[in-house]
Amino acid sequence: MRKTFMGVRLRRLREERGMTQVALARALDLSASYLNQIEQNQRPLTVPVLLKINAVFGVDVQRFSDDDEARLIAGLREALAGRPGEGEAVSLAEIRELAANMPAVARTLLALHQGRREALERLDALAARYGDERGGPALSAAQPMAYEEVRDFFFARHNHIAELDEAAERLAAQWALEPGRAQEGLARRLAEAHGVRIAAQPRQSEGSPRQYDPATGVLRLADGLEPGQRAFQMATQLAFLEMGPELQRLADGAGLSGGQARALARIGLANYFAGALVLPYTEFLRAAEALRYDIDLLGHRFGVGFETVCHRLSTLQRPEARGVPFFFIRVDRAGNISKRQSATHFHFSKIGGTCPLWNVYEAFAQPGRIVPQLARMPDGRAYLWVARTVSRSAGGWGTPDKTFSVALGCDVRHAPQLVYSKGMDLADPEVPVPIGMGCKVCEREACPQRAFPPIGRTLDVDENHSRFTPYPVAR
Fold first, then answer.
1. Rg from Cα positions in the chain
2. How far apart are CA 231 and CA 280, in angstroms?
3. With respect to CATH, is domain 145-316 assigned 1.10.10.2910?
4. Could you say which of 201, 332, 333, 341 is the most buried, measured as most Cβ atoms within 10 Å of its Cβ?
5. Where does residue 442 fall: left (phi above 0), alpha (psi -120 to 50 degrees), or beta otherwise?
6. Which parts pass through the membrane (predicted)?
7. DSSP letter at 183?
C-alpha cells in the first residue's frame, strides 16, 4: 500500500466520536504524538492502523480508500472544469487535496453541482414544453454556450441567409461553376484571383481537413476527401477571401455575447456560403423539385454527399422561391445532437435523450440505407422523416470511423412532394409512429419506451414492478 495521508478524515472520525487525541491514541494502542503526526499529515495512515480502527470502531476501511478519493477527484474535475468567467481556475493539485483531506466538503460540492445541473435541465425542459428554446427569465439568466447562440441565430433567420445566398449564386454564374465539377472552377478562381495553390496534406484522425497558410498562399486539403468535399473546402476558403467583410458584418450584427460566439458564427456563415456556391439556389431548387427531393439523385447530379444535400435542402427559403421547409439533424449513436437546423416551427430537444422511437436511431441498425418514417408529435402534428447513416474514415487500419445518423423532416402536408412518401397512406391517422422530444417533456403516459416521467410528474409502480404509470404530483 502506498503512503496515504488522510489526517483530516481521521480527525473527523475522532470528533464524531467525541474523543480527545489522547483517548483515541489509547484506544488504538498508539502514542499521542504519533497520532498527532498522522492527523497533521506528517505520517501516512498505514494498514495496521486502519485494521485497528476497523476492529475498535467497526468503521468500514473504504472510508479511507484511494478508490473513494479517485471517484471524488473525477467528479470534482467535471464539476469545476469549463466554467469560464466564474472565478479562478482550480488546479488538479487543489482538487486532489480537497478530495483527500476534506471528502465531506467535496461531496457537498458535487451535490450542489448535480442540483444546479438538474435545475438547468428542468428549465430547459419546461422551455421546450412551452415552445421557447431560449426559455423565460430564469433560463435566460444562464449564459448559453457559444455554439448554442450561433444555432439560435440561424434558427431566427429560418436557416436562410439571403445576402450570402444571392452573392453565392451570382458568383457561381460568373465563375462558370459546373454542377458536379465545381472544384475545377473553384481551384481556378483561387489561383487567378488570390494566388492560392492547392496541395495535399496527410489525413489524420484529428484536425481540420483544410489548412490555409496566407504567407505562402498554399491551401492544403486532406488526402482522401471526395470531390464534393474538396469543392466544399475550396468554397469555404473562398468565402473568407471574397466575403470576409460581409461575414464579419453579419457576425457582428447577430447580437452574440462574446468573441467566441462571433468567431463560430463567422465560420458557420462561411460554410453556408460554401454550400450555396457549390449548390446554387435556383438551379438546385429546380432540380430538387424535378426529382421530388430524391437526396441520392441530387447528390449524383451535383457531386456531393448525402449530408451536404440534406443541409442545403434545409436552407431553401427564399421568399419568392421557397422549397419545402425542412428540419435537418445529425446525431451520433449516443444521441448527441451535433447539428440541428430548422426552417420552420419544429423545435429540437436541447437536453438530450430524444425519442428512441424516432427513425434517426433506427438508421444505425440499417447502415447506408434510407429509412423513412411518418411520425406524430404529442401536439398532434405529423411529419415525414427520412434518415440515413453517414460514415467518415479519418485514417487507416485501426482508426475508428465517425458514424452519424443524418435526418431530414417536413410537415406531413408537404410529404406528397417527396419521393419518400410513395406507398404511404398519408391520410390514415393511425399510420404515424407516436414520438416525442424526449421523456422529460413528452406527455405520452403509455409509451412502451418511456425511461422516466416528464418534468412535474412522479412514478406509480405496480405491485409486480413490471411497469410504471406517471401521475401528477400532489400540490
1. 29
2. 13
3. yes
4. 341
5. beta
6. none
7. H
Place of cell 410513395: 422
As given in the structure block, the three cell numbers for residue 146 are 457559444
Grid coordinates of 195: 494566388
Q: How is the chain split into domains, by residue range? A: 145-316
The number of C-alpha atoms within 13 Å of 326 and in the hemisphere containing its C-beta is 25
Instruction: Please tell me the number of Cα atoms within 13 Å of 73 on its side-chain side.
Output: 15
- At 374-420, the pLDDT tens digits run 999 887 889 999 999 999 876 667 677 789 999 999 999 999 999 99
Residue 161: partners with Cβ closer than 8 Å, 6 or more residues away: 154, 250, 269, 272, 315
Look-up: residue for cell 481551384? 187
Contact present, 407 and 307 (Cβ < 8 Å) = no
For 5-60, the pLDDT digits (tens) are 567 778 878 888 888 989 888 888 889 888 888 888 788 877 788 778 877 877 66
Q: What's the predicted TM-score (pTM) here?
A: 0.70
DSSP 261-315: HHHHHHHHHHHHHHHHHHS-HHHHHHHHHHTTT-HHHHHHHHT--HHHHHHHHTT
CA dist., res. 471 & res. 156, Å (int): 36
The alpha-helical segments, DSSP class H, found in 3-89 are 7-16, 21-27, 32-39, 47-57, 66-80
**What is the end-to-end Cα distance of the chain in Å, rounded?**
54
Q: What contacts 82, CB < 8 A, 6 or more positions away?
A: none
